[in-house]
Amino acid sequence: MTRILLVGCGKMGGALLDGWLDRGLSPQDIIVVEPQETLRLVRSHVRVVAAHDEIPASFRPEVVVLAVKPQMMDAVLPSYAAFDGAVFLSIAAGKPLAYFAGILGDVTPVVRAMPNTPASVRRGMTVAVANPLVDPTQKETCDELLSAVGEVDWIEDESLMDAVTALSGSGPAYVFLLVEAMAAAGVAAGLPDEVAERLARGTVVGAGELLRQSAERPATLRQNVTSPGGTTYAALQVLMAEDGLSPLMTRAIAAASRRSRELAG
Question: What angle do CA 82, 84, 90 make, to 5 degrees?
Fold first, then answer.
């Protein structure tokens, strides 16, 4: 019986909402604030309002979930400072805990979370960090809300969130690019476009599911499909060279991490 105020119902906010409802959270315990008419869809009788001043005075949420774009936060957040006693759960990239303390007050419990887009199919990877004012019950509640769309990891050191953003937050784009590159390489090897894309997509999806279900480390799974002197071995000699995939990915994640720090200001 957790009362939730969801501020913003775009792709990530909508994914969270659907996950909560599927887990049995009562629609009567949720109010959604979403000003964009195109996003104000009624989900299982959840009340949706256009602005904070339409929230009934009798509704006192235990959790305020902030799912608005980071660039909108300055305009949106001050209106919700009156909900003292609630824990604020933010999924806005680049907004540190100190930012929320500056607007909501330094006695407000805040959780900062970084989910990724596979949350839309309940395969998200979310990393969260709490300020010291979040009590164990509030942390457990936030964990349950975030786990409705996938796995959740908690960290103690907020400075790691830039690396988290670079790895898992931006990571799905790297995988999609891998599929693009594999398909393009297949076309270069003589396959028709549609066949190459289907094979690349299916291979990555299947490998991901194998990785999910297996207790083996990724390196072991790689070794399991690599016969000495075989075709996979030949390809890995290129991908694992000194100028291959590993240093390239290291540079890419370093660039994303650096940009995350810049955006945080």
Answer: 90
